[in-house]
Write the structure tokens for this entry.
Amino acid sequence: MAEEFDDEFDGPVKRFLFVNRKAPYGTVYALESLEVVLISAAFDQDVSLVFVDDGVFQIVKDQDTDGINMKNFSRTYRALEGYDVEKLYVEKESLDARGLTEDDLLVDVEILDSQGLSDLMDAQDVVITS
Amino acid sequence: MLHTVNKSPFEKSSVTSCLRLAKNGSGILFLEDAVFAALQGTSVSDVVAGRAKDFQFYVLGPDLAARGLSEKPVIDGVEVIDYEGFVDLVEEHDAVHSWL
Amino acid sequence: MDYELDGNSFPADEEGYLTDITVWNKELADLIAKDENIEMNDDHWEVVNFLRDYYEEYQIAPAIRVLTKAVKKSLGEDKGNSKYLYELFPYGPAKQACKIAGLPKPTGCI
């Protein structure tokens, strides 16, 4: 239970990078990854997220899932700030290939090119891709 | 024949395989993650737009909306339909080929 | 374990969380609270309503640390601290209050 050692977690803190490569809704990867992100953050880990390939679609704004009868979990990305997960990155090449720009996104992100993303991944203790 | 594709064109080859193998005159419906294939301005737009004269393209509106893409322009010749339209399409065609 | 109210049955999981958040109402909240040995007062309701608003906005139940911080931001320092919230919900504010609010168990509580 996270509740009991909430304010005094003093275990090892690792740098986790979650690499999101799948679009939401068509498969369950995006939602599952987000849940692991929230759990990692609740344990005071140093968490970063990157959105690459179809993963950039996870954070496109104005998602409306009423018509497909699924939970609109895009809103949960906006809760990440409250979990102190503030390092969000998007690969520019992935946005460009999909005709998207930073203005299409629902959270503040840092845009990286492939080289920058490569450096970011190299600097982590744990990289989890889905 | 009505072809339906539900995989992202950026991740799987379902869309390009469907375009290569479907007979001219067929209907092709993009749904779920394949709705990305219906959008203008992407790295696959030209491939799809180039076949608009050969096929009747459709895209499922509720799947566009779920992904926040309702306001994005679709490729000329692609018709946005709802679930009722989907049912009508299935009725109109003698067979449905799902590109899973 | 389901809740029975006015002849209706409301399905819950083995820990007592409602399985369908849309069936929630205030009477049901009172009943769930009673099960947790909590007599609901205005202070309890304030937190429960806060949680429901949070869920509506973000589609998740917050972990305790996140709840505390969010309460502090919106209801002030005297309420946004563990002591105050644990006094209201002795067995864990996030878990107990979420249960009463009809929300799923907070993500990050295993």
User: Anything to note?
Assistant: Chain A has a mean pLDDT of 92. Chain A has one domain: 15-129.
